[in-house]
């Protein structure tokens, strides 16, 4: 879906060029983009006075169009323009606006619209420009950024100046950019909304994880056709039980604990298979296996990992399994999801000899080198596939920073893969369900309470 695609600055320029080649002029596209943004600003302003900060490029041109549209709608508008327009479209937009810019000190509106610099900015923001934005922001109650807040790098989310203000609303023009969903810049953007301008789907574009569409079981379904998931029990059995609780609520028809010790106190609705792990894995009805939560790192854990890698039809690797994994163990063609947190990701990168580049590049390189779909957990969760597909997760509640939440995520991902989803789809579905369950659980939840909300998150996808 083009509405969910995330573009680099270069991809965005190419997509706009395609519109120009099809007959849309730069000025016409500016009217479409800025006109859509102006309607958002008009509604947010609710009749209050607006200050529009315009820069020299086409982002500044958008500002002049917004100022003109707001004036036509009856808003009091002040334009601050520290630099004169340098592009033909921006010059035309300023001429059509027809007013005279005001000194920054004279701007006393209640709503600030930042159109100083857009997605093309990659160099550090000049000190006087940073001070100008900060000063105007301090004098306005509501702050709105057009496309990106000035001083945020489009392709990385890096903050290019100190003291940049927090905005209440950011209006992305045409497509999402990586900065909209990447820290630290994301934290300064407030609410985010997309203003469509007719950008077509871009081949190879990253995408935003959105609410999946999940079908209810068919009328002929049974527990095996819905998916039998095996979860390998490790030394810390509670982690396996947490993963199982989440998996039971994420769609799988049958969740079984594999290699369970005789004394395991499993709940009555969960089957514990006490057979040796190798024998349990031989069940041809197993659709997927999860190994890693609470596994441990001793020789028994290594043997269990080897057995799972050799006997599973599809596999999710989490926690200790990732710390034990070596590149030579990975069988070709096995559907795999790895769910590393930052420390586990560092260990995997070292194991596969990957260094240099930013986190996004490293995760993509790891997926290519390993053949695994890599679900790199954290405040900036990324999902990378071996074929180069990349998805970014929207922000999830920070209450997920609790022990055991990763076990819940792994259980969800394994459940979705047992249901028949391919590894990349299963990983994206799991990330969305995990975040939705956290929102439903409220603040300061336990991992068990988080797992209990997974079925409610699933209901939103039906």
The amount of beta strand, in percent, is: 15-25%
Query: Taking strands numbered 1, 2, ... along the chain, how are they ordered across the largest sheet?
Result: 7-1-9-18-17-16-15-14-13-10-11-12
Rg computed from alpha carbons, rounded to a whole number of angstroms: 26 Å
Q: Globular, elongated, flat, extended or rod-shaped: what is the shape? A: elongated
Question: What is the residue-mean pLDDT, rounded to a whole number?
Answer: 96
Helix content: 25-40%
Going by CATH, the architecture of the largest domain would be: 3-Layer(aba) Sandwich
- Find the CATH superfamily of the largest domain: Ribokinase
Main sheet record = 12 strands, mixed
Question: What distinguishing features does this structure have?
Answer:
UDP-N-acetylmuramoyl-L-alanine:D-glutamate ligase; 6-stranded parallel β-sheet; elongated; 15 helices; 2 domains; 462 residues; alpha/beta; Rossmann fold
Q: How are the elements arranged and paired?
A:
Blueprint: E1 5-7, H1 9-21, H2 26-45, E2 50-54, H3 58-72, E3 77-80, H4 88-97, E4 111-115, H5 127-138, E5 142-146, E6 169-173, E7 176-177, E8 191-195, E9 206-208, E10 228-232, H6 237-248, E11 254-258, E12 271-272, H7 277-281, E13 286-291, H8 299-311, E14 315-318, H9 320-324, E15 336-339, H10 342-351, H11 359-370, E16 373-376, E17 382-384, E18 390-392, H12 405-418, H13 423-441, H14 447-452, H15 454-459
Parallel strand pairs: 1-7, 2-3, 2-4, 4-5, 5-6, 6-8, 9-18, 10-11, 10-13, 11-12, 13-14, 14-15, 15-16
Antiparallel strand pairs: 1-9, 16-17, 17-18
Helix pairs in contact: 2-3, 3-4, 6-12, 12-13
């Amino acid at each position: 879906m083009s509405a969910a695609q995330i573009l680099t600055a270069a991809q965005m320029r190419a997509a706009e060029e395609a519109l120009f080649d099809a007959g849309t002029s730069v000025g016409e596209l500016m009217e479409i983009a800025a006109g859509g943004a102006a309607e958002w600003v008009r509604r947010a302003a609710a009749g209050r006075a607006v200050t529009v900060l315009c820069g020299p490029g086409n982002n500044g041109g958008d500002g002049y169009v917004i100022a003109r549209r707001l004036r036509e709608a009856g808003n009091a508008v002040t334009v601050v323009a520290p630099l004169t327009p340098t592009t033909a479209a921006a010059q035309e937009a300023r001429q059509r606006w027809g007013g005279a810019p005001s000194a920054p000190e004279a701007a006393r509106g209640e709503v600030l619209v930042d159109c100083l610099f857009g997605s093309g900015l990659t160099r550090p923001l000049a000190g006087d420009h940073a001070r100008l934005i900060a000063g105007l922001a301090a004098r306005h109650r509501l702050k709105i950024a057009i496309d990106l807040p000035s001083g945020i790098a489009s392709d990385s989310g890096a903050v290019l100046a100190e003291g940049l203000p927090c905005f209440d609303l950011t209006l992305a023009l045409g497509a999402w950019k990586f900065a909209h969903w990447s820290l630290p810049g994301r934290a300064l953007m407030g609410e985010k909304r997309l203003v469509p301008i007719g950008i077509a789907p871009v081949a190879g574009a990253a995408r935003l994880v959105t609410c999946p569409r999940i079908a209810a079981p068919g009328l002929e379904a049974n527990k095996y056709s819905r998916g039998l998931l095996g979860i390998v029990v490790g030394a810390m059995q509670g982690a396996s039980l947490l993963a199982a609780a989440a998996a039971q609520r994420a769609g799988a028809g049958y969740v079984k604990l594999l290699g369970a010790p005789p004394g395991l106190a499993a709940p009555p609705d969960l089957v514990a298979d006490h057979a040796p792990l190798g024998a349990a894995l031989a069940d041809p009805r197993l659709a997927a296996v999860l190994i890693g939560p609470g596994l441990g790192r001793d020789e028994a854990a290594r043997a269990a990992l080897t057995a799972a890698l050799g006997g599973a039809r599809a596999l999710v690797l989490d926690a200790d399994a990732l710390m034990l994994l070596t590149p030579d163990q990975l069988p070709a063609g096995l559907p795999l999801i790895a769910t590393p947190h930052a420390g586990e990701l560092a260990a995997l990168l070292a194991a596969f000899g990957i260094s240099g580049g930013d986190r996004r590049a490293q995760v993509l390189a790891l997926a290519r080198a390993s053949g695994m779909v890599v679900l790199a957990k954290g405040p900036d969760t990324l999902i990378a596939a071996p074929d180069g597909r990349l998805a970014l997760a929207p922000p999830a509640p920070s209450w997920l920073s609790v022990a055991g939440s990763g076990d819940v995520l792994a259980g969800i991902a394994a459940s979705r893969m047992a249901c028949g989803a391919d590894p990349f789809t299963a990983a994206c579905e799991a990330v969305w369900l995990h975040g939705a369950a956290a929102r439903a659980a409220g603040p300061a939840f336990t991992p068990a309470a988080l797992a209990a909300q997974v079925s409610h998150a699933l209901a939103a996808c039906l």
